[in-house]
Each structure stands twice: as C-alpha cells, then as structure tokens.
Amino acid sequence: xxxxxxxxxxxxxxxxxxxxxxxxxxxxxxxxxxxxxxxxxxxxxxxxxxxxxxxxxxxxxxxxxxxxxxxxxxxxxxxxxxxxxxxxxxxxxxxxxxxxxxxxxxxxxxxxxxxxxxxxxxxxxxxxxxxxxxxxxxxxxxxxxxxxxxxxxxxxxxxxxxxxxxxxxxxxxxxxxxxxxxxxxxxxxxxxxxxxxxxxxxxxxxxxxxxxxxxxxxxxxxxxxxxxxxxxxxxxxxxxxxxxxxxxxxxxxxxxxxxxxxxxxxxxxxxxxxxxxxxxxxx
Length: 283
Known about the structure:
- The protein is an all-alpha fold.
- Among the domains are: 1-106; 202-216 and 223-272, no CATH class.
- 62% of the residues lie in helices and 0% in strands.
- It is built from 18 helices and no strands.
- The protein has helices at 2-8, 19-30, 34-41, 49-64, 66-69, 74-85, 91-102, 109-115, 122-125, 128-132, 140-149, 155-167, 171-180, 186-198, 204-212, 219-231, 237-244, 261-273.
C-alpha cells in the first residue's frame, strides 16, 4: 500500500490523468481486506493534502467498481465520507470528498451540503447542489440555497446549479435558469441552455431564450439549441439548423457508438413535419 501511494502522489495534477496516479488508484481500490481498508483510512490524517486527495480518489474508485467486485460494504464508505466531510480542512480535498460522497446515498447528504453552501472555496461550493437536491420536491432550505448558489460570484458555482435547477423546474428555478442563459460567462450560459433544452418545459420564454443563443460562436451549443427546438416541434428548428454551420465530416453518422442524439432529434423533426403525399396539392 505505502509503495503504491508513494508512486502516485508526486504525479498528482488537477486533471488526474497521469498514469502513475490512475494506476495506483485502481490497484489500491481493488484491495478489499479489512487491513487494507484500515491502512487506507489512515491517509485521512496525513499532513500532505495530496495524500488525502489520493484517498478520496481511491474511495471513488472502490465505489465505481462496486458492481464488478460485488461489494456489499458501500454503506461503510458513505459513513466514512460523511465523517470526513465534517473534518477536512483543505478546500481542494474537501471538494473531492464531497463529490465522491454525492455519488452514493446517505441520509446526511443534504445537511452536510447546506453546511458548506457559504464555504470560502468555490470548489467546495460547486459540490453543494448535487448534495442538496435529492428530495423531490427539494426542501425549502435546499431550494433557497440552490437559488442563492445560482447567483454566486464564481461562475463555476453558478454553472454547477443548472442541472439541479432543471431537475425540479419550479417557477423560481425556471427564472433562475433563464437568468443563467444571459450570464456573462459562456460556460454558465451553455450549461443553463442545455439543462433547459433537455427539460420538458415548452414555454415561449424558454424557447425564446434558447433562440437568443444561436449567435454564440460555439457550434455545439448552437446544435444543442436545434435539439431543444426539434424536441418541441418549434417551427424555427430548420432555420436554427442552418445557423449551426457545416459539421465535421462524419459527425452524427449512424454506426456503432456514432449516433448523435442532437442530429437524430433533427431528423425526427424533419420526418414528423415533412409533407406527405396526402398533403400535396391535387394535380
């Protein structure tokens, strides 16, 4: 265990793509004996935050392999993460702990999420929406907090609220998402538009906000707008598709793992709305 950790930690980077880090994380995550778990948990108190970050990644790896390994002790990991989340002092590590914690089920998730809604580190605040939006409909405290986070000073925090606002599209959440489609940050606008487009809402306010984004330079966002309009049988779909521009060769071709849901939605729209022989004027 110690040797694998020592091989990993010098190579940590925010994208976690280094082969040493990912290989060690996988290898340690495969170990399931009580002694291995005891040795692993000891990293929670290591003075170096990268060691603690490695621990969080290993717990994620353990849980991502639950089905394959037929593990029955995921509740143990959830309890461990819940206790750790209350105690971790480093923002970078805490954000990852909360992210892994949100992947599972635990009764204290909302309470822990609300605890960190005003944390000074935006990486931590960005993890809060996925923890506090479990109830349907969300609790009053969760709804108030989500709306506040949608107006956060950090764009990543605002971006992180979009999917959770769209999942429970109350009038207040709808207004918040519409405001995010006009955000000063492109990624926030894009995430809000995608979330609204994937929802079942068909109001003129939503379609109007989506059409307004067809001037964005990012081609795939324009294609997302086509997808949203096609799903709604909006008559502006074809004009919006012209605004997408020429797509890369082979984009959206039918084949193994090549179907693009946005292209398919456009084709379905065309089939639904193309004139049939019975619609043609009599000769």
